[in-house]
Amino acid sequence: xxxxxxxxxxxxxxxxxxxxxxxxxxxxxxxxxxxxxxxxxxxxxxxxxxxxxxxxxxxxxxxxxxxxxxxxxxxxxxxxxxxxxxxxxxxxxxxxxxxxxxxxxxxxxxxxxxxxxxxxxxxxxxxxxxxxxxxxxxxxxxxxxxxxxxxxxxxxxxxxxxxxxxxxxxxxxxxxxxxxxxxxxxxxxxxxxxxxxxxxxxxxxxxxxxxxxxxxxxxxxxxxxxxxx
Amino acid sequence: xxxxxxxxxxxxxxxxxxxxxxxxxxxxxxxxxxxxxxxxxxxxxxxxxxxxxxxxxxxxxxxxxxxxxxxxxxxxxxxxxxxxxxxxxxxxxxxxxxxxxxxxxxxxxxxxxxxxxxxxxxxxxxxxxxxxxxxxxxxxxxxxxxxxxxxxxxxxxxxxxxxxxxxxxxxxxxxxxxxxxxxxxxxxxxxxxxxxxxxxxxxxxxxxxxxxxxxxxxxxxxxxxxxxxxxxxxxxxxxxxxxxx
Lengths: 229, 245
Hints:
The complex is a heterodimer of chains A (229) and B (245).
Chain A: H1 2-13, H2 18-56, H3 60-75, H4 78-89, H5 97-123, H6 126-134, H7 139-169, H8 181-192, H9 196-224
Chain B: E1 5-16, E2 19-30, E3 34-38, H1 45-52, E4 60-65, E5 68-69, H2 77-81, E6 84-87, H3 99-109, H4 115-128, H5 144-156, E7 162-166, H6 174-189, E8 193-197, H7 201-206, E9 210-215, E10 218-223, H8 225-230, H9 235-244
Parallel strand pairs in B: 3-8, 3-9, 6-7, 7-8
Antiparallel strand pairs in B: 1-2, 1-4, 4-5, 9-10
């Protein structure tokens, strides 16, 4: 027990080393939150373009660009994308690393969100769409008021899962020298040469974050399910 | 036939790839008529009905609604569809909306009524279809017969000039068929122009003003119900009736 307290003091209390964890925690939160937002915006846009193309045959160019984007984003490792965006694309401009990470993870997540949302749109019965159109609603109104709300409800569990993956994937941010939660813990390990305390602490914080996120998604899911009673 | 010509169909054709479903259908539907369409499954009767509001795009021929050729390029299909109600076999109530919102969505979003008017109208219609207490329910909570009556109410909320029914009772449990047919009978009695694809021979005989037999993509026979059922002339119709009656 005394040993545990000593370890704890060494890793977190001495020289205020807990601040590495705090800084990392804040950065991880910021990156995850904004990357999720970027991912949702890109994902819904791409999904709408792709499914509109499938349904109406229009937007051929848009569909083509989206497919290239999906192929590249899903076909290469996230870490390589992060490194390319930092060391190649933003090599000559001086912008905050957190911003670079948001762009990289947002672009990456957008690809997965897009395919999840598209599967949701396809899962809504064609009859719902036809009923909307038969009343005189146009394509956009039918999608907006009838198809998309149902699609969103159908894919919410999969979206929640994607956000959990995204949150944990931000742990590679250290590769561009950014102090995220993982990197913060690792800095402490480098200083104190003790692995257990900082790594387990970091793992526990991720676990808490993911648990909280799951809880929120579950709550939203339950609220959206009122029409199934 | 009575009244003005509401819908005119000229040599309507529809191909799905190599398969020709409609092979030149021509007919007229007048105001106040109730036209029942019967025929073996896969004969093209649903495709014909769905061509009337362009849910299927015909590959040939024309549909003229209230004097306007709606199959002509550049037609505002959405505007036309506001005046042509449709009731589906699978009801297709909007699963994400309450019954009241199902009925008010289109009139409100299309700017035909404000929210308050639409809600008032929805209340009237719910009373008319015998479900005044279901305004706040969701479609999943209703029986098939109730869903179909709501679907009819939703269609009526647009004040359509004609209503298309695509096998409205085929997906219902037998004990619920009656309530839907009863409602349709009332509509017919109120003078609604109706085109009904159906397997309910009783309904066709009692309510329709004209019965149409479609087989292999053409109208084989159309006549008043009495003539149609008692003195069928077409050989295929005779065979068909001997199987279903």
